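thought: user wants a sequence for this fold. calling inverse folding tool.
action: design(structure=
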C-alpha cells in the first residue's frame, strides 16, 4: 500500500483523513503540500467527492476557482489535484473507531477489520440530515416522506422521481434547491413551509429556486398533520406563534403525495465523541483552537463535521488550514518540549455575544496563529444595519458595517496577529453585533 508501513498487522501513516468529500480532499492536499506525504484518505463511498457528487446544480467554485461549476465538477478539480500528488485513498472503507492515541479502526470488504496508527488525524466526516423522527409531526408513517438530500440522490443519481405533488418543510439550501429541481422534472411543488420567521437558506437560492418558479414560502409555519396510511395523501401546515406553537384556525391543507424535510443538518460526530473530543453544544461540532485542533492534541476537525457551512468554497479553505496545521503538528513531533520555567503560549477564549451564536475557532493563541486568521460565525436572527465588532480585552479591533446579517449565511472576519499582540492573561476575544 504505497507509503504505508506495517507493524504487527497495523498500518502506519503520518496523517489519516477521515472522509473523502470536499473537506477531506482539501485537507489531504494541503497536508501533502506542507511536506507530509504519508497521507491516506478513508472514504466509505465507492468514490471520492462526498455529497458534491449528487449536487448537479451550478454555483460552486466562485471563490476558489473564480468560475461557476457544478458539484461534480468542483469535486473533480480536487480529486485531480489529489491524483497528481499520488495521495492514497481507501474507498468503500468505514471507520469504526478513532482513539485519543490516534489509532483508527476501519473495515472494508477487501481487508476486513484493520487498524491504522497515525501521528495526526483530520476529522472530515461531513454532516447528515435531521430526519422525521427528530420532529413532532402528527399523523401516520406513510411512504412518501423523504429528507431533501435523499430525494436529491434519487433524482440526480438514481434517476427516480420521488413524487408528483410535493410539500417541503424547512427552507435549508438543499430543500430550496430541490424545490427547483423537482419543478424542472415535472413535479408540482405546492409550497415551502419554514418554522422560523426567516429562511435558513441563502438569499440567492430563495430567489432562484422559489421566486423564479412562483413557489410560495410561508415563514413561521410548520406541518401539523400528515394524512395517508400507505402513501402520503395530504399535508396540513399552520402558522406558529412566537413560542413556535401552531395557531388554531391558520391551517392550510394541501393534497400531495410527497413531503420533503429540509430541517437542518447535524455534524457526524459519533467518532469524535468516542475519541473523547469536546463538543460544542451549539454547533454540535468540536471545540477547536486557531489551528482547528480539537481538545485532543493531534486530532483536527474541519468542514461540516466542525460546523455546517453554506458554501463549499469555505469548506475547502477551512479544511486546507486544518490539513496544513496537521502537517505542522507531525513535523513538530520530537521537537524539544518547553524548558523548565517557560510559560505555555497565552490562549484567549473567543466569546460570542450580542446576536452571535457561536464562533470557530473557540480559542486563539496569538503566538501560534498565522499572520492572518479567519474567524467564522453565525448569528441567531436577522439583523439590519449592524456592525460586526471584535474586542480584544477592552480594545475594539474590528468594526465593520453590514446592511443585513442572517442565520442562513455564515459570516467571517479576519484577525491579524498584531491586533492580538497586546492581549494579557484573563482577556477574552468578544465577537458581537453593534448598532453603532
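)
observation: tool returned 436 residues.
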Amino acid at each position: 500500500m504505497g507509503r504505508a508501513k506495517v507493524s504487527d498487522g497495523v498500518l502506519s501513516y503520518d496523517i489519516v483523513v477521515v472522509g473523502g468529500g470536499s473537506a477531506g480532499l482539501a485537507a489531504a492536499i494541503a497536508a501533502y503540500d506542507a511536506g507530509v506525504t504519508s497521507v491516506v484518505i478513508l472514504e466509505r463511498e465507492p468514490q471520492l467527492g462526498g455529497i458534491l457528487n449528487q449536487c448537479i446544480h451550478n454555483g460552486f467554485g466562485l471563490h476558489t476557482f473564480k468560475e461557476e461549476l457544478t458539484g461534480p465538477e468542483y469535486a473533480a478539480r480536487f480529486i485531480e489535484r489529489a491524483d497528481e500528488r499520488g495521495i492514497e485513498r481507501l474507498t468503500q472503507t468505514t471507520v469504526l473507531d478513532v482513539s485519543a492515541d490516534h489509532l483508527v479502526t476501519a473495515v472494508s470488504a477487501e481487508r476486513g477489520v484493520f487498524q491504522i496508527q497515525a501521528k495526526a488525524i483530520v476529522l472530515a466526516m461531513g454532516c447528515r440530515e435531521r430526519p422525521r423522527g427528530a420532529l413532532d409531526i402528527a399523523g401516520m408513517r406513510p411512504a412518501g416522506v423523504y429528507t431533501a438530500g435523499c430525494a436529491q440522490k434519487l433524482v440526480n443519481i438514481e434517476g427516480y422521481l420521488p413524487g408528483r405533488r410535493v410539500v417541503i418543510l424547512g427552507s435549508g439550501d438543499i430543500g430550496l434547491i430541490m424545490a427547483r429541481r423537482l419543478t424542472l422534472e415535472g413535479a408540482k411543488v405546492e409550497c415551502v413551509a419554514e418554522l422560523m420567521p426567516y429562511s435558513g437558506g441563502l438569499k440567492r437560492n430563495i430567489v432562484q429556486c422559489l421566486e423564479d418558479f412562483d413557489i410560495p414560502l410561508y415563514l413561521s409555519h410548520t406541518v401539523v398533520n400528515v394524512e395517508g396510511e400507505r402513501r402520503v395523501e395530504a399535508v396540513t401546515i399552520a402558522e406558529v406563534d412566537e413560542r413556535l406553537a401552531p395557531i388554531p384556525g391558520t391551517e392550510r391543507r394541501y393534497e400531495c403525495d410527497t413531503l420533503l424535510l429540509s430541517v437542518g443538518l447535524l455534524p457526524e460526530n459519533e467518532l469524535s465523541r468516542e475519541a473523547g473530543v469536546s463538543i460544542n453544544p451549539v454547533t454540535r461540532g468540536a471545540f477547536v483552537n486557531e489551528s482547528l485542533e480539537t481538545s485532543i492534541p493531534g486530532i483536527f476537525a474541519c468542514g461540516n463535521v466542525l460546523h455546517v457551512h453554506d458554501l463549499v468554497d469555505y469548506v475547502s479553505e477551512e479544511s486546507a488550514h486544518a490539513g496544513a496545521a496537521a502537517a505542522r503538528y507531525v513535523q513538530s513531533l520530537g521537537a524539544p518540549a518547553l524548558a523548565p520555567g517557560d510559560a505555555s503560549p497565552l490562549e484567549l477564549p473567543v466569546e460570542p455575544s450580542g446576536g452571535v451564536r457561536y464562533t470557530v475557532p473557540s480559542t486563539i493563541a496569538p503566538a501560534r496563529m498565522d499572520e492572518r486568521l479567519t474567524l467564522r460565525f453565525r448569528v441567531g436572527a436577522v439583523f439590519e444595519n449592524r456592525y460586526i465588532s471584535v474586542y480584544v480585552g477592552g480594545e475594539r479591533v474590528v468594526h465593520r458595517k453590514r446592511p443585513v446579517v442572517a442565520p442562513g449565511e455564515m459570516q467571517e472576519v479576519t484577525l491579524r496577529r498584531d491586533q492580538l499582540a497586546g492581549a494579557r492573561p484573563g482577556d477574552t476575544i468578544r465577537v458581537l453585533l453593534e448598532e453603532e
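thought: summarizing for user.
answer: Here is the designed sequence. Residues 312-332 form the longest helix (21 residues).
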